[in-house]
Write a structure and sequence with these properties.
Blueprint (H helix, E strand, L loop, with lengths): L1 E8 L4 E7 L1 H6 L5 E5 L7 E9 L4 E7 L3 H7 L6 E2 L1 E6 L10 E7 L3 H13 L3 E8 L8 H7 L2 E6 L6 E2 L2 H11 L4 E5 L2 H13 L4 E4 L15 E4 L2 E4 H4 L2 E3 L5 H9 L3
Parallel strand pairs: 8-9, 8-12, 9-10, 10-11, 12-13
Antiparallel strand pairs: 1-2, 1-6, 2-5, 3-4, 3-7, 4-5, 13-16, 14-15
Helix pairs in contact: 5-6, 6-8
Length: about 260
């Protein structure tokens, strides 16, 4: 049982929870995720760790209420308990000093991007973050990103905040003005597909996190299998991050649509 110590609403359907998990807080690295279960008969939900406080012994989770299980988690309040919390799972992000790193996030994908931004910045890189959402109210973790990046560019579909346009517009703006050594992208699959297509055109190595397709989180259910470089991979055990230029995004989009 893991106690919820703080709760914050980012929007009507997106909630940030800070949860007691001292062992996970000490051992987690950027890119890791946990499996969460609420109730003895609850569904297993994989959630990427958005942050950790080793002094308080807590981890931060950002959840979007989509179905019954994620909505049940979002309805928990301070003082309530998560029945099961297992982790850290998955492969950690490979972080080193490479030069200039562009981190492109969309929607709730911005949450797992935050520890990656922190990691690359601490490693001595110049980090430029591009945050994208449909409208101003859906931009999350902007202040935290600004505290850990050299520059933050905001893109909104409707132009209500930052610049009007897509995440790819912001990424290309950076590419055209300075040399970029690496791009990391997390968000909706269609967004990552177009970011990968853009960076491939400029021959910029790119990493994409495919955590949205995970279900079981242990490699047993097979729901998260994808094709990377012509070979079958399982996102939850081999990833969740892969070379974006090798990912078959059309297959990924087709598999995601199966759950509709």
């Amino acid at each position: 049982m893991n106690k919820i110590v703080s709760k914050e609403h980012f929007s009507a359907n997106v909630v940030k929870l800070e949860v007691e998990a001292p062992l996970i807080a000490r051992s987690r690295k950027p890119g890791h995720f946990v499996i969460v279960r609420v109730g003895e008969k609850g569904e297993r939900i994989p959630l990427t760790i958005a942050g950790a406080d080793t002094q308080k012994g807590t981890i931060t989770l950002v959840i979007q209420a989509v179905g019954a299980s994620s909505r049940k988690i979002c309805e928990l309040n301070v003082g309530d308990y998560i029945t099961d919390l297992v982790g850290p799972l998955g492969q950690a992000t490979h972080i080193e000093k490479v030069g200039t790193v562009v981190c492109a996030g969309g929607g709730v994908g911005v949450a797992p991007l935050l520890p990656i931004v922190e990691g690359f910045h601490k490693a001595g890189n110049r980090v430029v973050v591009v945050l994208a959402a449909r409208t101003k109210d859906l931009i999350i973790l902007e202040d935290q990103m600004r505290a850990n990046a050299d520059e933050v560019i905001i893109m909104t579909d409707d132009g209500s905040y930052g610049q009007k346009g897509l995440v790819t517009d912001g990424v290309e703006e950076v590419i055209k003005r300075e040399h970029v050594d690496l791009c990391v992208t997390i968000g909706p699959a269609i967004m990552m597909k177009f970011v990968a297509a853009l960076t491939k055109k400029y021959n910029i190595p790119t990493v994409a996190s495919l955590n949205t397709i995970m279900v079981d989180g242990t490699g047993m259910c097979g729901a998260c299998r994808i094709t990377v470089g012509g070979k079958t991979r399982f996102v939850c055990v081999d990833g969740p991050e892969f070379d974006a230029h090798q990912v078959d995004f059309d297959e990924l989009l087709m598999r995601l649509s199966a759950y509709k």
